[in-house]
Specification:
Strand content: 35-45%
Number of strands: 7
Distance between the termini: 54 Å
Strand order of the largest sheet: 1-7-6-5-4-3-2
Structural class: alpha+beta
Shape: globular
Largest sheet: 7 strands, antiparallel
Radius of gyration: 20 Å
Number of helices: 1
Helix content: 10-25%
């Protein structure tokens, strides 16, 4: 009986391991105190809210990386990173989907909307 339980436990671990591998890594908002503020602009990221409701602040890091922080009503919703010196034009965007201050990378090729928690 003990052997059967051990085999069942090992099988459960093997079956569930792909589920654990798919768990998305979470990031915190970059510390902007050491970054140079470049500019601020507004954009329309939520089609159901009229007007340009999303504030975007752009920052430059000493290593050449550019960071954009997107906020709505004073709450940080997303940030993106890229580098002008990157020949592959790597651009990544991270969004706080739950309001906990932990950001997950989202698909940059799809249009994104403000999460429900921030409205």
């Amino acid at each position: 009986m003990l052997r059967l339980c051990a085999v069942a436990f090992v099988l459960c671990l093997i079956i569930s391991s792909p589920l654990f591998a798919r768990a998305q890594q979470k990031y915190i908002l970059p510390d902007i105190r050491s970054l140079k503020h470049l500019t601020t602009s507004k954009s329309d990221h939520a089609p159901d809210i009229p007007g340009k409701e999303t504030t975007m602040n752009f920052y430059s890091a000493p290593n050449g990386q550019l960071i954009s922080i997107y906020s709505y009503k004073g709450r940080n919703v997303a940030f993106s990173t890229h580098s002008n010196s990157d020949f592959q034009n790597t651009y990544r965007i991270f969004m706080d989907l739950t309001g906990e201050g932990l950001f997950q990378e989202i698909n940059k090729s799809l249009p994104w909307q403000l999460p429900v928690w921030v409205r």
